[in-house]
Amino acid sequence: MSGGRMEFGETAEETLKREIFEELNIEIKSFKVIDTWNYMHNDKCQITGLYTLVRC
What is the pLDDT of residue 3? Predict the structure, then answer.
């Protein structure tokens, strides 16, 4: 599992690849979204998560 924040203008795929590389020094070749979740903390904060299957 990896956690991180998207940088402005970054896609979900770019974020996933960057975060995995930063945390584990592994390059992601491809990925498939398995499931998503969404949490509304308040009217100014929303968190979305992706469960993914990746190929390294």
Answer: 61
Place of tokens 């498939």: 32
Q: From CA 4, how far away is CA 11, in angstroms rounded?
A: 13
Q: How far apart are CA 31 and CA 17, in angstroms?
A: 9
Q: What is the pLDDT along the chain (56 residues), one digit of tens a residue?
A: 546 788 999 988 898 899 899 999 999 888 899 999 999 989 888 888 889 999 88
Q: Which domain holds residue 28?
A: 12-55
**Contact partners, residue 25, CB within 8 Å, separation at least 6:** none
10, 2 in Cβ contact below 8 A?
A: no
Number of domains into which the chain is organized = 1
34 three-class SS: strand
